[in-house]
């Protein structure tokens, strides 16, 4: 027994003590490391980890503001907002993604709904970052998603405002449309915009986007483990955008739109006294509501592949030869340069020989001896061939640019084009070839290299109407806050004064009055009982025609080779209040295709002026009947029979 006790004390107990010390040291080190780690996490990283923890249960939700409304000059709403529902996915756990994709696909397939391409993005979604997977969903989809919400972790319904284009197609090219901000736009904005913001892409929506878009709001929302909102912890309300009041008159806009039904081209009506745009139509149009919530591939292909190019804003970017409407510019230049007097007469035999080429007049057998007044009234080509030869291309171009041709007008719309007013220097720079004298002959009647926009025609004829002042055309009258406070009021802007004497202005106006009101004038479709309209017809060749009469007729029978029809006018003659420019693509003659459109706009202007918004139904019917009768009247038949419908 004594020997066993000694062994325990001498050998085995000492051995246990050594092992105990080792275990104690290991435990002490482990506890020290644990305490250090806890101290690091709670003291050093405590704030960051607390924020991470809260972000798992509290999310910051962006609140989109209401874009400002767009109204016509009378306060009629053209563009408003409406409520829309978007389907949003905010992933909590990676393992939820497959379940969500599978369930959503199953629900959509059960109703034979198209599976959005965005569903595929769910698999790549970043944790806690919302992504839209379906936009502007129907009430039926909304109900279905809400019914199965427990089976769709991370899926939420977001209420967002979208645009409602009340006036639809007839106003589309003016107001444009909105869509989600692109990556390029995000980078250019330098933080002013965030992903998911809606921005203006074309038209007023783009030009005045900074005023219309307002400021985003935000809300802190507590969510549960399934990502569903439990309660709101705080909110910053969004700030609505400003409202725009246009110079557009919705009634005139509608009349012009209906007048262009079935035609391609443009109509511009403006106030020659200050440059305000009353109406601006580009036909055909498109429905801007198609872009709400993102346009479908099918609809986009339909618009982009349409041979009539409905997305093109013809009024400010369509470039056409001005045809005989340009003759007034040549006449003004010749009078101011002292090359002719009102009594100067020229013999028109039906053609003008220059070099080895013969240039035809539209009147095959000629007009005989014509002075300035008769040349304008009957639109004699030969008379202006002679003037063009005397002036030369550079002097013609100088006066044309004073009238506003060859440069953008500066209207408050994007993507305006300048057109072309050729000079000898321009041709040398563009084609590396010198100007040929024969080219001036074509330029003098608005053909050749000349190209202008319908808006430029309206601006130039407004300058003729008001005595020589070129105004910057404006389409926005004022910008207002949502409470009606005036943010910015637009004032008329003079851009140029045409070097044209009052005598020259009077002579040109007399000629334009004769075009509409004299028996042999080419614009008789605008003749009113008050005899108060001045105007000018035009026919612009699309392509050069062959010398052979047979070949010429064969080419003209194809619509794409038919001439463009133009008509520009202002009224009343003494103190003009409205200018109208019309271009009908491949319409043929200005007097028969474009003038009736202008007539409807002029009539509508005077109806609105007389009755305001309370137009008697019987008065509407009378005026419509009178308009129809004019096109089939005996006078109209006599004019067409005599070949005086247009040049």
What are the SSEs and their pairings?
Layout: H1 2-44, H2 46-57, E1 58-63, E2 70-71, E3 77-89, H3 96-110, E4 131-134, H4 139-147, E5 155-165, H5 172-175, E6 178-180, H6 183-189, E7 198-200, H7 203-207, H8 209-212, E8 217-223, E9 229-236, E10 243-246, H9 250-259, E11 265-270, E12 277-283, H10 297-304, H11 314-317, H12 327-336, E13 346-348, E14 351-354, E15 357-360, E16 368-370, H13 372-377, H14 381-391, H15 393-402, H16 424-431, H17 437-443, H18 454-466, E17 469-471, E18 476-480, E19 486-489, E20 494-497, H19 502-517, E21 534-540, H20 549-556, E22 564-571, E23 578-584, H21 590-611, H22 617-631, H23 634-641
Parallel strand pairs: 2-10
Antiparallel strand pairs: 1-8, 2-3, 3-4, 3-5, 6-7, 8-9, 10-18, 11-12, 11-23, 13-16, 14-15, 17-20, 18-19, 21-22, 22-23
Distance between the termini: 143 Å
Architecture of the largest domain in CATH? 3-Layer(aba) Sandwich
CATH fold descriptor of the largest domain: Beta-lactamase
What characteristic shape results from the CA principal axes? Answer: elongated
Report the mean per-residue pLDDT as an integer.
Answer: 85
Report the top-level CATH class of the largest domain. Answer: Alpha Beta
CATH evolutionary superfamily of the largest domain: DD-peptidase/beta-lactamase superfamily
- How many structurally independent domains? 2
Task: Pick out its properties.
elongated; Beta-lactamase; seven-stranded mixed β-sheet; single chain; 2 domains; Penicillin-binding protein 2a (Domain 2)
